[in-house]
Every structure is written in C-alpha cells, then in structure tokens.
Amino acid sequence: MRKDTLIYYYCALQGLYWMSYGCVVSFTAVFLLDHGFSDGSIGSLIAISSLLSVLLQPIVAGAADKGKRFTVKSLFMLLCVAQTIPLILLAASKPPTVFIALLYSLLILLQLSMQPLLSALGIQLIQNDIPLNFGVARGIGSLFFSILTFFLGTLTVIFTTRCLPLISCSLNFLILLLMRKFPEMGSRQNQDLPAGGTLAVLKENPRFSMLVVGIAFIFTCHSSVNNYMIHILNRIGKGNAELGQLMAYIALLEVPAMILCTRLIRKWDCGKLLRFTAIFFVVKASGITLASNLALLYIAVSFQAISFAPFTAAIVYYVSSALGKTDQVKGQALITIGITIGNILGSLVGGFILQYHNVGFMLWLFSGLSVVGMVFFLFGAKNTSNESVQCST
C-alpha cells in the first residue's frame, strides 16, 4: 500500500473518531437531561465512567506496548466493536433509567480508552517512515467534529436525542471498515525490549509526572466547561441550537492551529509550546467565567486556538521525544489519564455545584484550579529534541 494512502486513511480515521466523540461525550449532558437525569447524577455518571477508563487505559496501553497478543490496531478495533453494543441498545429502544446510566457509562469508558490508541497509531506510522503530519491529521479530526456538531444541536430538536447513538453507531461501522485497511505495525520491535509498567514510567520521569498532574488540574476546568456548556449558555438565555453552533465554532478554530503546529514545533520545541498553551488555558477559562453575553462567550472560547489546539498535537510529539520506544503507548495513556482525571473532577464536582449553587461559582472555582495546573505545566514540561517531528511533513 502506498504511504500517501495510509496518511489519507489516518486523517479520515481521526475525523470519524472525533465525530463519534462529539455524539457520545460532547452531548452527554444534552442526552441525559432529556432522559430525566439531574445535574448531580450526570456529573456522577461521567465521573464514574471516566474513573473506570483511568483503570482500563494502563491495561490497554501495556498490552499494546508489549505487542505479543494484541496490537494497537487490534485493540482499537476491539474497543470500537464493544462500543457498538450499547449504541445499538440506546438507539433501538428506550430502556429504564438505570440501564441508560449503565449503557452510557460504558460508552464514555470505551470512547476515552480509544484516544491513546488513536494517537499511538499515528506515532507508529511516523516511526515506520510514513510522512504523517500529526497536527494536520488531528486538525482534520477537529474539522469533521465541527461540521457534525454544528448540526447536532438542531438534529436533537428535530429528531430527539435518540439520533445521537444512531449517528455514532454508523460512524463506528465506518471506523471498523477503515481500520481493516491498516497494516499491523510496531508489534514485533518491542517484544524483546524491557519495559516497565505505567507507574514505573511516572517514577522514572518525575517531570513528566508533574506535567500529568498539571494536565489533570487544567482539564478539570476545561472538561467542566465542555460538559456543562449547555448550562453556561442557559445562563445567558441560549439553548441546544446555540450549543451545537458554539461547539462547531470552537472545533473549527482548532484546525489551523493544529495544521501549523508541526511547523511551529520544528522551530520552537514541544516543551516550550506546552508551557505557552498552559498560559492561554487560564486566559480562556477566565474569559468564559466573565462572559455575560453570547458575543463575549465567543471571544473567550476563541483562545481555544492557542491553548487546547496546539496542546493536542504538541503533547503527542512530546511523549514520543520524552519517553523511550517501549513506553510510547503507556505515555500516551498517561496523558489521557491526566485528562480523564480532570474530566472526573470537573464532571463530578461541577455537577453537584450546579445542583446546589450556580454556574458562576463553578466557573470561578475551576478557573482557580487552572492556574494551579499552569504552574505544574511550567515546571513539568521540559525542552525536547525535534527528532520525532522531523520525520513527518
């Protein structure tokens, strides 16, 4: 198979995955509110499923790094198949509330556990001399996400929220068809190399551990804003249609930053870029907290283009430079775990704050936590070589 063809396939895979993520994760609150869940129960559900993904991801990553029984490709496909089961059940029927909770928790668990494998697959392509620009591929993921989410809010009004699992199920079917085109890569080169567990990676790399902690703090704020954006919009008199449009706008902003990220890293290494993004995570959080109308909210979320967008591409290259080859998938999983822990705290604490206080109190609290995360970022992210970037175009 031609190398260019694999690049196109991987870009399409990013697009399909993030479209599915938009249906499942980004519209969690919308779906569950429509099915009678309270803010507190939604926060608890997201937190529990995210916590379970924290436990699952090191197991998946360890199996992928060993490459003896499972590979990155086979594990990704396995999780994708597993996800279609609850999607079909949610789309085809209206089960009791307790089963909706269980099924949706499983969906989020599997969706989050696929992320480090998707990133690791891209790094495997690069390490096998495929000239992939990860920033471009991830930018295409955001572009596809923005196109779908622009219409999702309106679609939920026209067809009810039951259209969300149906759309995601269709996307998963396309993902499975596409994954069959990928060759097995990187499974043999690591079999005879010594590799520690996930906790060993943290012990051997203290600054990397600080970075993971910083990510957890910053994403506590970032995740709470994403999960409860519908409440932020309700505060200024807006609803589901505006949610879809705003999320599409945010994702669209990410595209140029992600596409240019690889070129920027060649001149300005990953560690410096990560420290830069941490500052603007705080600026974005503060702006959202202070926004009193839709125009100001749009201005505040525009900082996504210089915070989350470059972070997403830079962190993948950073892991490939900062950790050894036998710890690549575990490193990607640790980053996702840090993000997931933030998601747990943001969802759980945010849900109960909304139930007993208000949106403003939640935003001020989490903005403060993002400042703490920025400090860990500044000390945890070290300067790295650009070798992992040079092999991509």
Question: In brief, what are we looking at here?
Answer:
The protein has 393 residues and is mostly helical. The chain is built from 17 helices and no strands.
Task: Please provide a written account of the structure.
With 393 residues, the protein is mostly helical. The chain has a single domain, classed as Growth Hormone, Chain: A (Up-down Bundle). 81% of the residues lie in helices and 0% in strands. It has helices spanning 3-26, 28-34, 39-66, 72-92, 97-127, 134-159, 163-179, 198-204, 206-227, 229-235, 240-267, 270-290, 294-301, 308-322, 328-356, 359-380, 387-390. Helix 1 (3-26) packs antiparallel against helix 7 and helix 12 runs antiparallel to helix 16. The longest helix is centred in the N-terminal third of the chain and has 31 residues, at 97-127. Residues 187-195 have low confidence and may be disordered.
